[in-house]
Write a structure and sequence with these properties.
globular; 12 helices; mainly alpha; 300 residues
Length: 300
């Protein structure tokens, strides 16, 4: 690994720290937002309020939003695998699980991505990556076992979160191989628009009878997601991703489920069990094993 692969300036460091904290603390915000409130309606409100800010970010960066008509089909496919399935399933799973467990299970995505790359795209897994896959499997098994062992457990929520992570992993592999010529921020804008429409239609079709005036806690969670997640963190990450050294992005991804678990215990007084702690350690091993850049011999 060269010194250049590890170097990044203070501005990048500050932005990565902001994105990591925003996404990490968002897990208890999601739980707070869907407690006693329809989950798809909550997500739709967040996205509708976040879209104008996201549009402003694209305008400030002079990003053209045009997508060629010949690329619409691929854009629709990327939207389904990268955002639609994730948002539809994950927000329902958060309602069923503690925010910490949802965060841990959601960030199995890098491990699923390694498996999808191997199964569908011919990528080979190094021995340390197989170690990561095994560690993730044990961590997931611990959480599922604990959910099944308690009468109040909801293994359906855990399985839904795992399915969401697996589809998201497929989406990341497809996005890496995308032939869409538009900038990544434009792709992100249109994927968010499509997802907002889908979420709105689902909310209208299934949750209309449950619509109530959101209490202050729900509005706080909605605004947090609209401004910090959809308006700022998501576009910042898309803009940073190509310029970040692998170590920085790996550490950011590793910290998010840890922050989600600890902040849920702090803000929401969610009880932590030994299975949660063990799963966090195993997931950190898994994520670092599949994402951490390998040491390669230097060539002149």
């Amino acid at each position: 690994m060269t010194a250049a692969a590890l170097s990044f300036d203070r501005r990048q460091l500050g932005l990565v720290l902001f994105v990591t904290l925003a996404w990490g603390f968002n897990w208890p915000m999601l739980k707070m937002g869907v407690t006693g409130f329809p989950p798809w309606t909550f997500r739709t409100l967040s996205m509708c309020l976040g879209l104008p800010l996201l549009y402003l970010v694209t305008r400030m960066n002079r990003v053209p939003l045009h997508i060629a008509r010949s690329e619409w089909r691929e854009l629709a496919s990327l939207s389904v695998t990268n955002m639609v399935v994730w948002h539809v399933l994950a927000i329902v799973a958060v309602q069923a699980l503690s925010s910490g467990r949802a965060a841990i299970l959601g960030y199995t995505m890098p491990v699923f991505s390694a498996l999808v790359g191997m199964a569908l795209f011919g990528q080979r897994l190094a021995p340390r990556q197989w170690l990561g896959v095994g560690a993730a499997a044990i961590g997931v098994a611990l959480l599922l076992w604990h959910e099944l062992a308690h009468i109040t457990g909801r293994p359906g929520g855990a399985l839904g979160m795992l399915l969401a992570a697996a589809v998201w992993a497929l989406g990341t592999q497809q996005l890496r191989r995308s032939r869409i010529t538009a900038p990544i921020l434009a792709i992100g804008w249109w994927m968010t628009v499509i997802t907002t429409v889908v979420m709105g239609l689902l909310a209208l079709a299934t949750e209309r009878d449950a619509w109530v005036t959101p209490p202050s806690t729900v509005w706080f969670a909605v605004l947090y997601n609209a401004v910090l997640i959809f308006g700022l963190a998501q576009p910042l990450w898309l803009m940073l991703a190509r310029g970040l050294p692998p170590v920085a992005s790996t550490l950011s991804v590793m910290l998010i489920p840890v922050l989600g678990t600890l902040s849920g215990a702090w803000f929401l007084q969610e009880r932590l069990y030994w299975q949660d702690g063990a799963a966090i350690v195993l997931m950190l091993v898994a994520i670092s094993s599949v994402l951490w850049p390998g040491l390669r011999p230097h060539r002149t």
